[in-house]
Description:
By secondary structure, the protein is an alpha/beta fold. The chain has a single domain (28-330), classed as Aldolase class I (TIM Barrel). The protein contains eleven helices and ten strands. An eight-stranded parallel beta barrel has the order 1-4-5-6-7-8-9-10, surrounded by nine helices. Helix 7 (235-247) crosses helix 8 (261-271). The protein is globular and about 70 Å long. The N and C termini lie far apart (45 Å). Ligand PBG binds at residues 123, 125, 127, 135, 171-172, 207, 210-211, 224, 280-281. The site of ligand PBG has 12 residues, from helix 6.
Amino acid sequence: MSQPNFPAMRMRRGRASPWIRAMLAEARLHPSDLIWPLFVCAGSGCEEPIASLPGVSRWSVDRIGAKAKEAAALGIPCLALFPNTPSDLRTDDAREALNPDNLMCRAIKAIKDSCPEIGVLTDVALDPYTAHGHDGLVDASGYVLNDETSEVLTHQALVQAAAGADIVAPSDMMDGRIGTIRAALEREGHVNVAIMAYAAKYASAFYGPFRDAVGSRGLLKGDKKTYQMDPANGQEALREVALDLAEGADMVMVKPGLPYLDVVARVRDRFGVPTFAYQVSGEYAMIEAAAAAGAGERDALILETLMSFKRAGASGVLTYHAPDAARLMNG
Ligand code: PBG
């Protein structure tokens, strides 16, 4: 093999010292890249650790304001909220999702009261409220109904917007719901409430700890493959994104994160819109397990995986490591 550019070109010159590596870095991580998902539980004065998500807890509404202040002090711009609805309030019609005084709405208000400068992103989906653990309404055969579910989700998004949500984030994968939610928000005067569409959300094995956190794991019958995407499909993700953008999504998300970095990169390249990745609960748990087993250094694993999202073109990342990562970046 001839080496036409050697020694004229030595790639290692650009790696020889920290200053030149810093100067030539193509992607950069900043706390403002992070969205921190928080789980909310009933009661007061409560912190409930989640066994399958070591280091992550559910917090009662009276303690959520302190988490918002912690985030703001670290430079994290936005929180994502997920409620663990008490089991006696879970019904087949998910009516608790529409209660303006539910855990989600009370948590939004608590954050806005204690820390108005931080953004609040809310999950629009019915799984924390249904007795069967699905993201939508089901018919007698167990099929998740599309249009009927969209109607409830639209109402849910309005309830969250009225409580003060800045970004509503439908995570349910029903067809057409971005359009109905956008139209309803406009009609009700919530013109500056943004929509982050979970546009390409896959039926993934990486959601287990999350389902523990919101209490839906034991309830869920079957799987979510009739609405969430097949992990085999990349082109289909582009079609999903195109539809959500046409319906009025301000930003799109790919979920899970690391196993779908190709999708993040393709979405960003094709559409050039704000594109977020969700490093989901199973990914967090995998990093924690690797660190606990001595297979890698925790801080380095966290920062390397987050950097990979930025390299792929993501605008930001939803990650349970957000506060630790921000501390490392601020270090
Ligand atoms: C459901 C929802 C899920 C997650 C966010 N919203 C799980 C699911 O689809 O079953 C997963 C997030 C995570 O695993 O961290 N609406």
